């Protein structure tokens, strides 16, 4: 559940919460900022994060997008 | 000196003197030849699915043997055929002919055909036969088959000056349906491919996975090596179904993914039920996608599906793609990941393309991309003022 205004520990959720309507339209193709659309966007970003394709790091003041972690 | 040698000499001479327009393609680049002309080579009939479905026609022109088509500029309805032939008895002199309004003339030819009369041989037949007899130069450049990684070109880098040097450009007045692409100057640049798709009034995704036309568009553009991004059109021939890919693998030992594998992975369930969606998606791709707008110039064609299968027996789907030099160096894409996400979910596919663009921009700048998210405004009690829904 994404709750506007609450501190969100999950960087993907924090990233999605900061997206504007235009961002969401361009990223996931939905001209809407409904709760359900944000859930879909969150799921997509979270999946990329979990798959190691990208790394979202919450570094205070903003969520940074990094490339994949190098494999040891 | 044979006729072919005459033509080759004349071609080189014209090129050297700048007499050949930049839009001309050398005769060996027959991949650019429009499928309608290929259809004519097979013997035109009114039952031809290409003619029947597209309602396009070729011109009733009194071609004589010896003419060779150079190119078919622009897709229908702005179809134009240019032909060239050597002037008999003279060296290094060529004769040009431009035939405009092919579709209208062809419609007229069909209208004149009396009812019940057997369909005559297509007027362009001799021309295409002459074309077919021209030995093709074997290209030393193999099409790039992404296995692990691909390159996402930066088409927004095309400048007006470069656009004017590219062959086969669309005039500014003949705008396709796709409007201007937005600039990607913000902190969160989305992939231009996704934006291009959205802005052309694209249909929403139906069923599982990203829309087929979007996937075909993206995948065909990714089938071009960075070194081949020289602004020339390249044909990318892909096996149609799994069986066709298997046949190629058995014959040559080379593993080549088919279009069906792009869309469905190892196995296409319900292929009999859903196959008709593939040519439909390719036609949508031709009509709406594949254009990029260059500010101050007009629209530039970058990709087209030049051979669309008419049945499941057709072994091949061909895309004609080009990438200008300024756009050739782009972002790194992991090909297996992209195809897997495309099969799974539309938001996932789009998000991955956007993330690739962001990571490319981050690598270019030397630091991570940050989407600034302001911390919540707290009231006197330390609780956030804005609740869910902006209240």
Give the helix level of chain A as a range of percent. 40-55%
Number of helices of chain B: 15
Order of helices and strands of chain B: HHHEEEHHEHHHEHHHHEEEEHEHHE
DSSP E strands of chain B, number: 11
Largest interface, C-beta within 8 A: A-B, 34 and 39 residues
- What is the global morphology of chain B? globular
Biggest β-sheet of chain A, characterized?
A: 2 strands, antiparallel
Distance between the termini of chain A: 34 Å
Order of helices and strands of chain A: HHHEE
**What structural class do the secondary elements of chain B suggest?**
alpha+beta
Name the strands of the widest sheet of chain A in spatial order: 1-2
Number of contiguous helices of chain A = 3
- Strand line-up in the sheet with most strands of chain B: 1-2-3
Gross morphology of chain A: globular
Rg of chain A: 12 Å
Integer average pLDDT of chain A: 70
From the structure provided, what is the oligomeric state, counting identical versus distinct chains?
heterodimer
DSSP E strands of chain A, number: 2
Question: Strand pairing plus helix content of chain A: what structural class?
Answer: alpha+beta
Rg value of chain B: 24 Å
What does this structure look like?
The complex is a heterodimer of chains A (72) and B (391). A two-stranded antiparallel sheet of chain A has the order 1-2. The mean pLDDT of chain A is 70. Chain A is of the alpha+beta class. Chain A has 3 helices and 2 strands, in the order H-H-H-E-E. The N and C termini of chain A lie far apart (34 Å). By secondary structure, chain B is of the alpha+beta class. Chain B contains 15 helices and 11 strands. Chain B has helices spanning 3-16, 35-41, 49-54, 102-111, 125-133, 160-165, 192-199, 212-222, 242-252, 259-264, 271-274, 277-288, 325-328, 335-344, 346-365; strands at residues 68-73, 80-86, 94-99, 149-152, 234-239, 291-294, 298-301, 303-307, 316-321, 331-334, 369-372. In chain B, strand 2 and strand 3 (94-99) form a beta hairpin. The longest helix of chain B has 20 residues, at 346-365. Chain A binds chain B through residues 3-7, 14-15, 17-19, 23, 25-29, 40-41, 43-45, 47-48, 51, 53-54, 57, 61-67, and chain B through 188, 190, 194-195, 197-198, 204-205, 334, 337, 345-348, 350-352, 354-355, 358-359, 362-363, 368-376, 384-390. Strand 2 (62-66) of chain A pairs antiparallel with strand 11 of chain B, so a sheet runs across the interface.
